[in-house]
Design a protein that fits this description.
About 50% of the residues lie in helices and about 5% in strands. The protein has about 425 residues and is mainly alpha-helical. Helix 5 (about 135-150) packs antiparallel against helix 6 (about 160-185) and helix 6 runs parallel beside helix 7. It is globular and about 80 Å long. It binds coenzyme A (COA). Coenzyme A binds near residues 301 and 306. Coenzyme A binds near residues 306, 308, 358 and 363.
Length: about 425
Amino acid sequence: MENETLTVIDNRTQKTYTIPLYKGTVRAMDLRQIKTGPDDFGVMTYDPAFMNTASCQSAITFIDGDKGILRYRGYPIEQLAEKCTFLEVAYLIMFGELPTETQLKDWVDNIKYHTMIHETTKKFLEGFRYNAHPMGMFVSTVAALSTVYAESRNVHDPANRMLQIHRLIGKVPTIAAYTYRHSLGYPYVYPDNDLSYTENFMNMLWKMVEPKYQAHPAMARALDILFILHADHEQNCSANVMRSVGSSLADPYVCVSSAAAALSGPLHGGANEEVLKMLDEIGSKDKVPAYIESVKAGHGKLMGFGHRIYKNYDPRARILKWAADRVFDVTGRNPKLDIALELERIALEDEYFIKRKLYPNVDFYSGIIYQAMRFKPEMFTVLFAIPRTVGWLAQWQELIMDAEQKIARPRQIFTGHEVRNFVPIEQRAAIAAKA
Ligand SMILES: CC(C)(COP(=O)(O)OP(=O)(O)OC[C@H]1O[C@@H](n2cnc3c(N)ncnc32)[C@H](O)[C@@H]1OP(=O)(O)O)[C@@H](O)C(=O)NCCC(=O)NCCS
């Protein structure tokens, strides 16, 4: 459109520039022409933490944070959670369309074909201390797969990329389950390809001496829904790491490992573990008001609350609340739910949280469900990483195929010293004393 431009007047030079708008954005490179003279580098944008910068074009996930909308490839998350299996959604995220029956069968077969991990990788896992954090084991073991599949470095070959995608989606539940068994000192359970993706994961977690493990159908479905809700979330911290590391053309194993490392932080995927610690610390419903007052006074954050993009209810949290009831029908009610509900009730009426648009996010309820399913809190972020591997890989595919992308390399505003002369070591103490 003709009027899709900005007129910028540089008050330093009185020059006027016409800057095109592209899909509502300014291309930062178009600002470079705004200079005070030939020696001037030109105007840059400054945006710590990417508060208002689009780093890519993506067709995968749409979020409207004000309206509380989340869609994968155009389909509302509520419909996908109700009607699909996780691997069906994984196909949609990866290829852009829901699969036909034949496409789904092939996709599932391909993933199941790759669920085993090499025995040397199993030995690698055995080397961790008994009390190693499962997320540290997960991050390291996924990275170690890079040494097993050397051909994965050939990232420009589409068939090779797809093979690694099948392998990664197939193997992450196996690695995750092995980290869990390792921390308990139990023998590892090999994958059972008669089972669905989530049933097989549960088999590798909980099979003991029975010849065939059978997951409770309601629990397997709940886990499938949890996986669907966590599969992608556009340009979040870990997706950005996936793209940033991927932009150097590193292989997908180290890329996924780096993304998982970003996920492990308490402000990102690690928040669900922190929610449980917080609920333990609060202890009982009557202590909730005092806890909220201490958060408002600046003593820590209400974990599982707030989101960079959602400034309304996180739609995933609403589905999780529903899934929690299905799980509690089987497991009995997790007493922590009462504390969580009270926290939510009081916080949503409180001026501090209303003003800052802080609502429960996906991590607020997922931990309570996982705990009811008998997972230890240290496993929660690993449970997030399994389905998010699909999102990371779809973002990586998009990156590699995007002709506009190059190695990601931000600029900086240099705030350090101007050039200065070297000071010999024997003179430094005297200079420091004078300063
Ligand atoms: C998710 C999160 C990192 C988003 O951060 P952000 O977009 O950078 O938002 P900010 O940190 O700028 O927060 C804006 C304001 O709300 C406050 N705030 C944000 N999250 C808060 C929380 N969980 N509890 C209490 N106050 C919170 C901030 O202190 C800030 O207050 P101020 O304006 O008085 O300084 C942040 O909300 C958070 O740390 N939440 C807890 C961790 C969590 O649940 N993470 C999982 C995300 S899915």
